[in-house]
Design brief:
883 residues, alpha/beta, Dna Ligase, domain 1, D-amino Acid Aminotransferase, Chain A, domain 1, Glucose Oxidase, domain 1, 4 domains, eight-stranded mixed sheet, 34 strands, 18% strand, binds adenosine-5'-diphosphate, binds magnesium ion, pyruvate
Amino acid sequence: TKWIYTFGDGAAEGRATDKNLLGGKGANLAEMCSLGLPVPPGFTITTEVCNWYYANGKSYPASLQADVDAALEHIARITGRSLGDPQKLLLVSVRSGARASMPGMMDTVLNLGLNDETVKALAAESGDERFAYDSYRRFIQMYSNVVLGVSHDAFEEILEDRKADLGHELDTELTAAEWRDVIALYKAKVEEELGKPFPQAPAEQLWGAIGAVFSSWMNARAITYRRLHDIPESWGTAVNVQAMVFGNMGETSATGVAFTRNPSTGEKALYGEFLVNAQGEDVVAGIRTPQNITEAARIAAGSDKPSLQKLMPDAFESFVQISKKLEEHYRDMQDLEFTIERGKLWMLQTRSGKRTAKAALKVAVDMVKDGLISQAEAVARIDPASLDQLLHPTINPKAPRDVIAMGLPASPGAATGEIVFSSDEAEDLAKQGRKAILVRIETSPEDIHGMHASEGILTTRGGMTSHAAVVARGMGKPCVSGAGTLRVDYKAGTVTARGVTLNKGDIITIDGANGQVLKGAVPMLQPELSGDFAAIMEWADAARRMKVRTNAETPADARMARSFGAEGIGLCRTEHMFFEGDRIVAMREMILADTEDGRRKALAKLLPMQRSDFLELFEIMAGLPVTIRLLDPPLHEFLPKTEAEIAEVASVLNVPADKLRQRTDELHEFNPMLGHRGCRLAVSYPEIAEMQARAIFEAAVEAGRETGSPVVPEVMVPLVGIEKEFDYVKARIDAVAKSVMDETGVHIDYLVGTMIELPRAAIRADVIAETAEFFSFGTNDLTQTTFGISRDDAGSFLEGYRQKGIVEQDPFVSIDVEGVGELVRIAAGKGRKARPGIKLGICGEHGGDPASIRFCEEVGLDYVSCSPFRVPIARLAAAQAAI
Ligand code: ADP
Ligand code: MG
Ligand code: MG
């Protein structure tokens, strides 16, 4: 086996595509060499050695020793230098580098090969004693920390004490002699800590560093990082050993990092920082303030420190040329590390640069314009989830923030408004054209109208899956949940945070991106949906096969979803319409009625309201498909809960409180998720489904008349498990359709279909499809019923399951392809068999999750449906799945 790959002097054994074997850093160093760029020569020990090391009790393949010696020979041939040779001294860096960049890994060791003797050789050769001893002390510090495990602070303390004694402020002020004293103290410290002296033999130093890199693959930081980023342990890390170049060789030397384009805006301009007379991580460590690379950036930043362009024009010019070359070669924005040794530029790293969502769009679109990449490549490069950042107003990053509390970043975007403590107040304010932030201990279904009316929602209790969080995300409203340090006093109308008391009407701002609660108004940046965003979306639309619909029941959501490019409504949950205003009163009357007659009377009051709801949605969707789900939740959700509420409702409805209490008790369920809900309601009380069907068809007739573009309503029956349930309800719907057509003399095209959200329905899909004209996979309930896990109760153990590796991800966030997905596959196949061309879609949270969307494409669904703010994400993800 070939364990080592060399690079240097315009040639390399590896290349950029060898990332799995050489790690990202090693592969790109090799590639840069082959491109003829100035890269100090070196070699990469492969990730396979790392795996060998762990498979064989932390030992090395037998030939590795000889292979490393041969690779050192390779460096010697190019540089004329060898480790430990006082005439022609070679120093190296030892750098870790996995397939994916991993901040949890070992820090780089620089200047390896220095000892009490070779440091003199370095001083003599460079003619700079100060430089030599500065390098040596850096080496002792790094090596002792990274390889020998002596704490970094121990050395910092010694250095700070010395600097204070000597009256120095900066490290660069220390003289050679002063560094020599520091070195003596450092070495004494190491000996004290380890009971043996700092290793002097370069070979021992080198093997120590190589072993430390491999060991670091299993350190706690790296393991945690891998878990958080789904990086498998089997990847392993490579080790890069490379001849040193020196950015700390005086005033004509420097080190720096740069992006080929601006990583926050995407602007096509070299962007970066450097430090004169510095080495390695000094730039990022913040020891001194770094300087701008270009003049333009320096002027923009208002800095009085000279740019690299001004200070070292020749090195700057080569750097500009190289950065252009690398960007063209990799066809992507690059993140570069470089060092200038006495005026000569050396490249030490390149990789594709991390960027904001905004920059990602701009870079991709610009590169298409420049002919560097195709439209499909541009579409493939954007992380769909990152679009979320772009669809909401955000706090101007330059604005000062007066943070009064922290909660969870439950729903993205920022919002400013007056504090209100009830949903009714929020609605009142909205009617007056004022902006409200709804502040609640927690929210419930009865707050829907208030959440709609406010700019943002703040709760003091509840997590990322609390009612407030889930509903706010669905509405695309900013939400901070569980801000536990806030105390809300509804009676007094105050909210208190660490001694600050705010009253109803005071202005606050919430930042749903990071969970901050801020006092007062803060300047915002508005989302920009034209330009680059629109271009990428257009290309995505051209590439995708699946349609993207939205889950929406309010006109505002439907309009917003249209503006985000939704191609219809995939799920209109009618129950939300029964909470608003007078409707809840009629709804409660219906529930309290003792007879069918009584129920029909109450339902007659709801009919015109439902009809006008649907009419408005049909108008907004102008001819696009609209799927309406019949009433789904159990009836007790509509009844008051606390004694105070019961008393209030009793007086509004003019019924005895006892009767209300009694009905509430009757409707009580031990497990409402599996209770009297969905089509079971329609079977027990067909008049409810009939009223809803009538509202749908009458609205369809009217919308057809008004807009001229006839709607094809899709009536959806929820929670079907037994084919006869569906047939029973469908017969009622068909009957209503027929009578509406007879009454109006207008023909209506419509479909009646079902949700597939119970395992039995998936298994009996062929029989159900004999009468059902479409399926919509309700994967929220299907996940609950397949796993037998209630989503509301999963929080207490799912995270533990993840940590123990029993489940890889939350199945409510990303579809469980093997289990729930298999049921979807089965149902899709059976459905198509019984009814070729049957329309298949997915509603529920998974419809907006990129990984789940990929699965939907595989199964060949016709559309996905998601909340309005996820529509652009779904459009892009559907395109990527199809590419
Ligand atoms: P990281 O993975 O943390 O970026 P690197 O291995 O890239 O670590 O090393 C960090 C820095 O150390 C580099 O950016 C560079 O400035 C410096 N460095 C690494 N190798 C050398 C070398 N051979 N000569 C000079 N500086 C080096
Ligand atoms: Mg680096
Ligand atoms: Mg459901």
